[in-house]
């Protein structure tokens, strides 16, 4: 079954399966605040390998032959593109396990809602850096979703896409060289409290051999995660070293940093 985004663009309602303990509810909604993307549910929204390379400061060539886990990946095409470049990449998301046409419907619903909102709040974005315009960003994100859907349909049965969610992942300790988590932690601080973030970060470190990279380090209002100090202190107590690293990428205003986590030496 070949699934296309265009055939689903007119969908206006759809029964959506529960995920993230019912935090991904239907449909994605937002408040009218002009200073924030006040999403009440986790958006099924994806990005390309090129964007990942920028906001995670990744050397894709250096990852060849290494194992990489993309957590809360949504319809991002990073895993599909990275595997074609010789990276042993795996993606996880609570919606994986749905049929490709159901995921395409999620994309149609959430992308339409998200980009409609983005166009009413251009001040929240640094146009001219990562993307020249909202239209260019939309074109890139829709291309990512299309690549994801094609790869998902072919590779889900081969365990490239695993239906699971933080804060518990079904992998052995140190299973992956690098673990990535983009546009989930911190952004949805209203839905997920500090204890969830601490537990989630511990779990990401548990399944990593080298390092964990989390981007961005701010909420939907464009400010740093309010409990970042408390989070880092809790992780330090578990001998997890954390570092805020500036990256050469900014689309959502202020989203030019990532949090890097590693086990303490010794």
Please characterize this protein's 3D structure.
- This protein is 30% helix and 15% strand.
- With 266 residues, the chain is α/β, with parallel strands linked by helices.
- The protein has a 7-stranded mixed beta sheet with strand order 3-2-1-4-5-7-6, sandwiched between helices.
- Strand 1, helix 2 and strand 2 form a beta-alpha-beta unit.
- The longest helix is centred in the middle third of the chain and has 22 residues, at 134-155.
- Mean pLDDT is 88; it is low at 1-32.
List the helices and strands and how they pair.
Layout: H1 49-55, E1 67-71, H2 78-84, E2 88-92, H3 100-120, H4 134-155, E3 161-162, E4 176-182, H5 194-206, E5 208-215, H6 228-237, E6 240-246, E7 257-263
Helix pairs in contact: 2-4, 3-4, 5-6
Overview in brief:
This is Methyltransferase. The chain is α/β, with parallel strands linked by helices and 266 residues long. 30% of the residues lie in helices and 15% in strands.
């Amino acid at each position: 079954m070949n699934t296309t985004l265009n055939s689903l663009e007119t969908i206006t309602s759809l029964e959506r399966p529960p995920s993230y303990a019912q935090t991904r509810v239907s449909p994605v909604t937002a408040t009218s605040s002009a200073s924030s993307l006040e999403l009440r549910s986790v958006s099924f929204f994806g990005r390309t390998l090129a964007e990942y390379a920028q906001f995670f400061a990744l050397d894709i060539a250096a990852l060849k032959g290494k194992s990489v886990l993309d957590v809360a990946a949504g319809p991002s095409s990073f895993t599909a593109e990275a595997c074609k470049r010789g990276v042993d990449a795996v993606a996880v998301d609570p919606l994986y396990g749905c049929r490709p046409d159901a995921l395409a419907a999620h994309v149609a619903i959430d992308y339409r809602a998200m980009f409609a909102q983005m166009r009413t709040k251009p001040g929240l974005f640094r146009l001219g850096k990562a993307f020249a315009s909202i239209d260019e960003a939309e074109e890139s994100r829709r291309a990512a979703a299309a690549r994801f859907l094609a790869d998902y349909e072919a590779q889900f049965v081969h365990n490239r896409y695993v239906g699971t969610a933080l804060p518990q992942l079904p992998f052995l300790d140190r299973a992956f060289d690098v673990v990535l988590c983009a546009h989930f932690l911190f952004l949805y601080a209203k839905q997920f409290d500090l204890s969830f973030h601490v537990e989630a970060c511990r779990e990401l470190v548990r399944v990593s051999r080298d390092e964990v990279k989390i981007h961005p380090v701010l909420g939907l209002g464009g400010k740093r995660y309010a409990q970042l100090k408390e989070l880092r202190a809790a992780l330090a107590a578990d001998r997890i070293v954390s570092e805020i690293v500036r990256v050469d990428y900014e689309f959502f205003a202020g989203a030019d940093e990532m949090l890097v986590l590693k086990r303490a030496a010794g």
